[in-house]
Amino acid sequence: MTDQPTLPPAAPAASAQPARRTSVAAIVSLVAGILTWFSVPLMWLVVPTPICAIAAIVAGHMARAEIRRAPDQVEGNGLALTGLILGWSLVVIFVLSLLAVVLFFGGLAAFLAYLASIGQLH
């Protein structure tokens, strides 16, 4: 017998598939969506709230399109979807709040006009 060391087993062949990368647009969408909700308490004092919401929505749609075009190369669909949900939820809440304010003051104005027309408002 010879005293030659045994060689370690050969490493498996490298896969032909390149590593998947996370979409930058998905990360931007998530970060903008989070910043949207952190800036909500200062919505009327700080401009970035609507800008962040729009950025989250646009970047989220761009990321999902990028992921659909190359699903074997790009990942981050969950990040993009989360950014989209955060951005769109702020838009929906803003529209519903605006609608509530308009309906409240419109109803108040209509009620006051009615009282004035029947002579109950002095």
In short:
With 122 residues, this protein is mainly α. 64% of the residues lie in helices and 3% in strands. Helix 1 runs antiparallel to helix 2 (48-69).
What does this structure look like?
- The structure is a single chain.
- This protein is mainly α and 122 residues long.
- It has one domain.
- The protein is 64% helix and 3% strand.
- It is built from 3 helices and 2 strands; from the N terminus they run βααβα.
- Strands 1-2 form a two-stranded parallel sheet.
- Helix 1 packs antiparallel against helix 2.
- The chain is rod-shaped.
- The protein starts with 20 loop residues before the first strand and ends in a 5-residue tail after the last helix.
Order of SSEs: EHHEH
- Outline type: rod-shaped
Overall tally of structural domains: 1
| SS field, number of helical segments | 3
Q: Describe the largest sheet.
A: 2 strands, parallel
Number of strands: 2
Share in β-strands = under 5%
Mean pLDDT: 87
> Which regions have little confidence, pLDDT < 50, spanning 5+ residues?
none
State the share of residues found in helices, binned by percent: 55-70%
Write the layout of secondary structure elements.
Elements: E1 21-22, H1 24-38, H2 48-69, E2 74-75, H3 77-117
Parallel strand pairs: 1-2
Helix pairs in contact: 1-2, 1-3, 2-3
Features:
122 residues; mainly alpha; two-stranded parallel ribbon; 3 helices; rod-shaped
